[in-house]
Amino acid sequence: MLSYQHLYHAGNLADVHKHALLATTLDYLTRKDKPLTYVETHAGRGLYDLTAPEAVKTGEAAKGIAIAEGWFPTTHPYARALAATRDQRGATFYPGSPLIAGHLLRETDSIHLCELHPQEHAALDYASAPFGAKVYHEDGLAKALSICPPTPRRGMALIDPSYEVKTDYETIPRVVGQLHRKWNVGIIYLWYPILREGYHKPMLAEIKAVAPEALIHEVRFPPVRDGHRMEGSGMVMINPPYGIETETKRLTGLFRKLG
Fold first, then answer.
1. Is there a domain that residue 1 lies in?
2. Is the separation of the CB atoms in 98 and 40 below 8 Å?
3. For residue 217, what is the domain's CATH number?
4. Catalytic member of 15, 27, 109, 160
5. Is residue 100 assigned to a domain?
6. Backbone torsions φ then ψ of 68, nearest 5 degrees
7. Staple 89 to which of 93, 132, 151, 204, CB 3.0 to 4.6 Å?
8. Hey, which of 5-9, 33-37, 224-228 has the most confident mean pLDDT?
């Protein structure tokens, strides 16, 4: 369970999908002066050097953000977070979800980040320090349930597991249902990989049973290398903000061009 390190996959097409939707949502939320809460259950290290041997070995960033960056004008919140990260950390760095949130949120907002992997947690603690985030070396799903409903009540949670633990597909619908009941005004996003085996399908059916109003957006893309099992990326969005479908439709069209 603690073997997963996102550095091998940072900046891939699934990250592009997930982070574009996250950034768009946070941008919408910050248009109002009211403070908000951001909770992330599987935060990773938060900051990734795409020239590191791990990233170069898989080549996923080279076939991900390196290709897709041109999809986002400089005014897009995802592009703004990318630019801010590079300005502060260097041209080869890529922001994970915690740093995208950090760059787009304000001092009045609260950030809660969870990560169990010891080395990843230590790196996350360092990378997120400038944003005043609270970083927990705890199980993220349990922590989210203990935090929520948070103060401020306005805000969102991102659930982004690696799914290396197969029981995640069984556990997550229950947790999402509990979280939605406890924090009925909260925006809850759940990312999942689309693997050729279709492990996500029963999970989605269970989530739709507890949150029938949820918006589900999926994109497909060619496997990054021979034998690679991930063929797409999906996001469940509960209580998504007004206008998010403009971005989902735009992303659908862009991903279709990849063939």
1. no
2. yes
3. 3.40.50.150
4. 160
5. yes
6. -90, -10
7. 93
8. 33-37
